[in-house]
Amino acid sequence: MTPFARSTTGVEGLDSILRGGLPANRLYLLEGQPGSGKTTLALQYLREGVRLGERCLYVTLSETADELSDVAASHGWTLDGIDLFELAAAEEVLGDGRHQSVLHPWEVELDGTIQLIQQQVERIKPTRVVFDSLSELRLLAQDALRYRRQVLSLKQFFAPRNVTVLLVDDLTGEGGERDAHLHSLCHGVISLERLTLEFGAARRRLQVQKLRGVNFVAGYHDMALVTGGLEVYPRLIAAEHHTPFAGEPVPSGVEGLDGLLYGGPLRGTSTLLTGPAGAGKTNVALQYVTAALERGERCCVFEFDERIGTLLTRSKALGNDLQPYIDSGLLELTQVDPADISPGEFAWTVRKAVEERGCRLLVIDSLNGYIASMPQEKQILLQLHEVLSYLNQKGVTTFLVNPQHGLVGSMSIGNIDVSYIADAIVLFRFFEARGRIRKAISVIKNRGGGHEDAIRELRIDTQGIRLGEPLERFRGVLTGTPEFEGDSVKLLDERSA
């Protein structure tokens, strides 16, 4: 391999963060507390080497061969093609013809241990080596200076041999703190973390601490440990994903609704549908989805709150049967559990839907569920803003459903104002007239162009979505406490055509 060659890790997201993989023939540190996913990532790295036809060696000082086989089997893998060097097994350490039942790491002098590893490397001549873990070397060394000298000697031993080495450290030594000297010795450092929330699944994240000579994607990146290995979700950077597109209006197929935004929201913009529960927000979003499907555009709906079955039943009652579009693959309805998904994973899912499956219109229902997936409030708007910016750069039309508290409510969620992140805002309200609760709809913002400033009655029934004349004889409709002024007013009746 040339000095500029890359050693891919076998984890798509991590390779993306590393801008193509680890620079080959260098020494790297993979660190993290027990349970953070280090062994799984190390095995994926070696399996990728086997797939590429490289010779791979796993040096294990902490786990037995049986334990490693169990880890691999839990992901549906085998260790075929990976040379395993286990110090706890005498046959592996001393070779055939030597008689000793068990040789534990703490029974071997450090110098002898290093020598045995070097002999194994010389015999196998691998291009990828995983050394798991450094905590056992610390125990053998008994002295910090001697330990660091041996790590340095390992680096010098591997340097001329065209080997990419992954040192695994579980941070169990020196009070669980990171070793700054070890960081400086290695060409790159990858840190894994496992976080336990008050409710829901444990969250994992990854950070590349350093990588010499590479403009990697810095910061924390969410990840998940699933059957099949570690999945890493790179932090989304919207500015890197611009695609030219025509910003024409996106119609809903309902004349009155399209008139509110002078033809519809523009492509590459986000529209916030905000109002109290039951005011018609999701139904209006589904109307835009149905119209897009009829034009042959691929659509994605991410449901954080409502069950998909309920959504399909409701849509069919309004005359929009979505099941055929699901069967054809034109529509993707995804049920999202905010307790089990991280914001980074959601952003990665959105990115795959757009880049791999060509999604042109996307609905997030609702923002309450999305924000519930991120306990750290300081990052909520930054994450959401980056996702929306990415969708805008890709020319995707986005609808955000924002259920407000009470019958009046405000455009904030958990004391966080979400109104500024949207390009257009459609406001839904209830009002009372002639002894009935009615719905009103209006547009209060549209960055993409002009919009109607009237407040109209909204009717949603078996005839679909209809809009009435402007509510000119009412005052205070948007406050939730309207007052009628005048002798008569023309309202939509449920029996009218």
UniProtKB/TrEMBL annotation:
One of its GO terms (molecular function) is protein serine/threonine kinase activity. Keywords: Hydrolase, Kinase, Phosphoprotein, Repeat, Transferase. It is an enzyme of class 2 (transferase). Coiled coil: none annotated. It comes from the Bacteria. Its EC number is 2.7.11.1. The keyword Hydrolase applies. Residues 5-246, 248-481 form the KaiC domain. The keyword Kinase applies. PANTHER family: CIRCADIAN CLOCK OSCILLATOR PROTEIN KAIC 1, PTHR42926. This is non-specific serine/threonine protein kinase. It comes from Luteibacter yeojuensis.
